Amino acid sequence: MPIAIGLHLAVAIFFAVHAVRTGQQTYWLFILLSFPLLGSLIYFLTIYLPSSRLQRGATKLAKAAAKSLDPSRELREARAAYEYAPTAQNQIRLAQALLDAGEARQSLAYFEQCLQGIFSEDLEIRWSAAQAAFDAGQLDAALRHLETIRAQDARFRSDAVSLLMARTHAALGNAAQARAAFEAAVAQSGNFDSKAEYAIWATGQGDWRTADALHQDLDASMRRWTRQQRDFHRDLIRRLKAAFAQERR
């Protein structure tokens, strides 16, 4: 019994530290420490799991599977819904469907229309607009949206925002800002995407010391991967291999 109580308390403390680091409401500390077992379960389901990379990864995999079966289904349905009822919600859905379908320029136009109205401070829409702008090659617009997100809430999708900001600075040729942003992204998440993108950029800069160090970490991670994980990152792995295949200067 004492061991079980200690385990419950340890889990509660883990979530309490997470709550403090991520800026959650202070009442979570009371709930977690007063009711360690029940409080931890509630916190895990309502706060920790929805924001975790595991949950985001599972969502991406599910969307990828559905898209592989009928790639244009969501775009067809979103367009039909918007044509039937051009509401803000249907406009957002169509913009996202266009982005997922690779129609970044059209997607950006819809997202930016949404940001002119009641959703002007909606960070999810602005994040999607930043992604669409980057994919469309409108890098100044992408950077503007990312900086607005940071100004409104520095914790919002901090890993992903840092990485896209780094890639945007890299595409703009802002080497110093790109390096700082890549290092911040790696420090914040340490995930495969941030390390791989940083390594790819570093090879282009001729910084093989940084690139090789990152590549060692990436190889260690990939050795433990399942086939599904490799398939999910196929495009990024291809870009990584191409970057390291170039002649060293």
TrEMBL record:
Lineage: superkingdom: Bacteria
Entry keyword set: Membrane, Transmembrane, Transmembrane helix
Transmembrane segments: 29-50
UniProt keyword annotation of Transmembrane present: yes
Protein name (record): Tetratricopeptide repeat protein
